[in-house]
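Please, structure for the following, as tokens.
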Amino acid sequence: MIKFLPSVLLILLAVSTVSGLQSGREAQDFQLKDSHGNGFSLSDFRGKVVLLEFFASFCGPCKPQLMELKDIRATYPQEQLVMISISFDPSIDTDERLISLSRNVSASWTFAKDTAGISDKYEIMIGPTIILIDKAGIIRNVHEGLTKSKVLMPEIDQLLAETPPPQDNSTAMNSLVGIMGIIIVIVILLRFARRRKSKPQKTREQRR
């Protein structure tokens, strides 16, 4: 047991480091297709709480984790909580396999295979890993390994109770100001051109 203690400590240190790095960061946006071929992006769900699960069908703890997630899906409607299970081994978990798996557990949320290296971007090291993202798109909670629904639900309740931040309209406002400025410049140039065009006419009339 003592012989394996350094390896165990290294593993625990790596896990805690990954979790510490992820919590509080903005969740990286990604684009995937679900097991039925429908495309989606993480940014599509801004303003909602998102539960991301990274798993694989061959992972032992991942199977009971799906049952825990099933309890969560039954508690929170899709309008409040978006749930996405992403397989980090797309070579094994084909679309057909994911569809079969979701049917076997009566899972009514999105399943997708990681064809864009999302698990690498999120530094996933353990299956299952669950990431809770708040309405502003910030990673708030990270759970590695089998996590009970009774642990996740209070965290989800807290995120749902938070008021979503106001949308940043500064970009749209800056664009509008820029367009108005261009219109004003065009109007001034047109008036100046008309004045210059009318001056020679008056001069010719005076000569007559």
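Residues 1-21, 169-175 have pLDDT under 50 and may be disordered. Residues 13-161 form a domain with the Glutaredoxin fold (CATH 3.40.30.10).
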